[in-house]
Design a protein that fits this description.
Length: 189
């Protein structure tokens, strides 16, 4: 009986691994094509607070460089994000983490710090006043040695910043943050 239990667990673990790995893409698209996708889509997203707009734009730029596995371009993107975060009250720790990404010597270190950055930044955007558009909170269960990792995106399509082209589509949408529509109440007499 216990043998069947272990076989079931092994089959489930294998299915999870295969699901993420079967979504792998060959690197047919160029890195710039990957980066352009989310960057163009976030143009339709707008915030009521211009500082949050600046932070989100810088964040997407950094995330896209990690998706492209481009550690050298991630450095100035992280520096830009750190600067934007320093100007937003309460985001000082996130600014420090973004600076660590800018100073990191390799992509693995950048991606590890990106997890900590998301722990700080995602709650900010969950409570942000969106004027238009949708932000997708995405999750990869395999990131960080199986501890998982989240990130923000302007599109539903999964482009994994924790693995880049190794497992580009590994992940799922965990949550959608949408602009709240204002519905005026009609006063009935």
């Amino acid at each position: 009986m216990q043998g069947k239990k272990y076989m079931s667990l092994a089959a489930l673990a294998l299915a999870t691994l295969v699901a993420c790995q079967s979504n792998q893409q060959t690197k047919e698209t160029t890195d710039t094509a990957i980066v352009a996708t989310d960057t163009a889509l976030h143009a339709s997203l707008s915030f009521k607070d211009q500082k949050l707009q600046t932070i989100y734009t810088a964040y997407i730029n950094l995330k896209d460089q990690l998706v492209s596995t481009n550690p050298e371009m991630a450095k100035p993107a992280a520096t830009e994000l750190a600067k934007a975060l320093q100007e937003f009250a309460g985001c000082e720790n996130a600014a420090t983490i973004a600076s660590k990404i800018a100073d990191a010597k390799d992509i693995k270190t950048q991606r590890t710090a990106f997890t900590a950055l998301n722990v700080e930044v995602i709650p900010v955007f969950k409570h942000a006043a969106l004027a238009s558009g949708t932000i997708y909170v995405q999750h990869c269960p395999m990131a960080n040695n199986g501890d998982g990792g989240d990130w923000l995106s302007s599109e539903k399509k999964i482009q994994n910043p924790y693995y880049g082209d190794e497992m580009m589509e590994c992940g799922r949408i965990a949550e959608e943050i949408k602009a709240k529509s204002t519905i005026s109440k009609l006063k009935l007499d």
